[in-house]
Design brief:
With 236 residues, the chain is an alpha/beta fold. It contains six helices and seven strands. It has one domain: 3-Layer(aba) Sandwich (Rossmann fold). A seven-stranded mixed beta sheet has the order 3-2-1-4-5-7-6, sandwiched between helices.
């Protein structure tokens, strides 16, 4: 990487990282009342190394995770998760001013949450794959029938990587997430790695509305990256 990797205007990641959050974090940044979704089917896409599905299934919720890397075996996916964990921690510590560290009680707390999510995910991965909980996908296509899930969650991918994926990819992925949902799609955050809101957000909302898809930008009780306290909600 050149010197731009130390640019203070955003976290510089050299790849789409395989990284995950815990169920308790999902509850906040997706503004989720899990009691409301107890008997529902939930899709997490792309889920990365999140423990949401592992934890939700332990609570009796029918949850499925999708990711590009879920064709990998357990050993390889653990190596990838560890490498990406180190990459993110290194890069995030170069731009500490972009984050509200008190959310985690400092960077050590952030690291603990990341490790916890990854350990819970890794412990569930092999069994979960056998039981159909971890499904490899290549967006913008999903291998599910229309309205297969009540709720579709998409965190820390769309908009975050707006420098790597073009508008058509974002729109087509969102339309596919909407196709497989029967009630709601929730997407968080609305910001890119530069901590700025997705520049084509208004254009995107207009395009969705013109397809008669109801959208709403909703405040959420979470703001780790400064300014990232909203999600995009699509409602059937």
């Amino acid at each position: 990487m050149d010197d731009s990797s130390h640019h203070p205007n955003g976290i510089q990641l050299d790849r789409v990282v395989f990284f995950g959050r815990t169920l308790s974090e999902y509850v906040k940044f997706f503004n989720l009342d899990l009691s409301h979704w107890q008997s529902s089917k939930i899709l997490d896409c792309p889920s990365g190394a999140a423990s949401f599905v592992a934890e939700a299934c332990q609570m009796g919720i029918h949850a499925v995770a999708c990711d590009l890397l879920f064709h990998l075996d357990t050993k390889v996916i653990i190596e990838k998760g560890n490498a990406d964990y180190n990459h993110v921690v290194e890069r995030i510590s170069l731009v500490p001013h972009l984050y509200n560290w008190e959310v985690y009680g400092g960077i050590e707390g952030f690291k603990e949450y990341r490790k916890t999510a990854f350990q819970r995910f890794a412990a569930d991965y092999e069994n979960g794959k056998a039981q159909g909980r971890y499904i490899p996908v290549e967006l913008p296509k999903l291998p599910f029938a229309d309205k297969s899930f009540d709720l579709v969650l998409s965190g820390h991918f769309l908009f975050v990587y707006s420098d790597e994926f073009n508008y058509t990819f974002h729109l087509n992925t969102i339309l596919e997430l909407y196709r497989v949902c029967s009630k709601e799609v929730r997407i968080y955050p609305l910001h890119g790695k530069d901590a700025k809101i997705y520049p084509l957000m208004n254009h995107l909302i207009n395009d969705l509305n013109s397809l008669e898809i109801s959208t709403e930008i909703v405040e959420v009780p979470w703001e780790f990256q400064k300014g990232s306290h909203q999600m995009l909600q699509l409602i059937r």
